[in-house]
Amino acid sequence: MKKGLARFDYFINQLQELLDKASRQKNPALWLYRNNARTTLFMLEALAKMYAAFHNKKKFSKFKDHFKLLEDAIGKIDYYDAFAKEIAGDKKIPKTITSYLQAQTREKIQSLNEILKEKKWLSDGNIRMKKIKERLAKADWRNEKDDIKSIKSYYLTEINQILEFINQKDFHFTNVENDVHEFRRRIRWLSIYPQALRGCVQLSNSKTTIPKFLSKYLTKEITGSPYNVMPQAGIHKHFLLLEKNRFFALSWMINELGNLKDGGLKVEVLKEAVMQTSPADENAATAKAYEYAGPKQITIQQVLDAAENLFKTYCKEKNLESLIIGIAVVKK
Questions:
Q1: Residue 87: which H helix or E strand, with range?
Q2: SS3 233
């Protein structure tokens, strides 16, 4: 089996197992959400996104759309459920707010159940999965050497597009969702691809001395994270090498921006809940959202300013430009 097909096959089998188990549940969508189906979908979306760029655009773009539809639906459940659980025990927040978030969670769960049914993910005979497997099997997969060259080229393109995004913003953020979350989403894919590629991406130390400024990123939480351990190389002979400490810096940045994003989105979701459960206008709802979030809640502007400062430093250090070491070939 060619390496490209094997990568898809690994996660397709994972998804198939999850769907089989979900189909036997009273609430399949809730079961998939609670059993981390989103991670598997992220991996498949990453592979499809990548192979659409350098293999068969039409075929793999369709795969990507299928996986993304499910992944987005689970993400919407997580958005409301996480905040509903976070504020559930807070006595200063009216029950109407918590009830609204819980109702939205149930609505998003129902929406995913409808998608699963309409798109035939849970149908008798596994129609959707069978079609995907058949089309994957018929793809004209490349050999390992050509595959790794394309992966490197794709990775470079992704980095350049992120840098273009940064230049367009001129290091200035004005919106949590469109700026902070979008920048984080773009760099997060750079950490997902290596996991999805199942061993052909490895971390290595560059031959140059580690710059002192990288030490701030090398926390125990980051260097000891299982998410920063690459899948075993297995029988691969061709590898894309990423600079280990720059990859840790990327992981640190994703984590910190995630914390800031969640802080900003908490205000947004509380404001939404206030506006949907009371006659308050946007300004009054915003004020209430900050009141409910508590005195330690940073403002949206503080979130934006902090994110700007983080990514200005990160980009000034040219961490993205220094992430790729190159291709290595191991003779066996």
A1: helix 57-87
A2: coil
Length of the chain: 332
pTM of the model: 0.94
Q: What is the DSSP letter of 120?
A: T
Cβ-contact 147, 3 below 8 angstroms: yes
Report how far residue 82's alpha carbon sits from residue 109's, in angstroms, rounded to the nearest whole number. Answer: 13
| Residue of 96, 158, 169, 123 lying closest to 23 (CA atoms) | 123
Assess contact for 218 and 245: CB atoms under 8 A.
Answer: yes
312/176 Cα distance (integer angstroms): 16
**Full pLDDT tens readout for the chain, 332 residues:** 789 999 999 999 999 999 999 999 999 999 999 999 999 999 999 999 999 999 889 999 999 999 999 999 999 999 999 999 999 989 999 999 999 999 999 999 999 999 999 999 997 777 889 999 999 999 989 999 999 999 999 999 999 999 998 888 887 888 888 888 889 999 999 999 999 999 999 999 877 778 899 999 999 999 999 989 999 998 899 999 999 999 999 999 999 999 998 888 999 999 999 999 999 999 999 999 999 999 989 898 999 999 999 989 999 999 999 999 999 998 86
What is the distance between the alpha carbons of residues 5 and 306, in angstroms, rounded to a whole number?
Answer: 42
- CA 169 to chain centroid, in Å, comes to 21
In order, the DSSP letters of 243-299 are EHHHHHHHHHHHHHHHHHHHHHHHHHHHHHHHHHHSS--HHHHHHHHHHHH-TTPPP
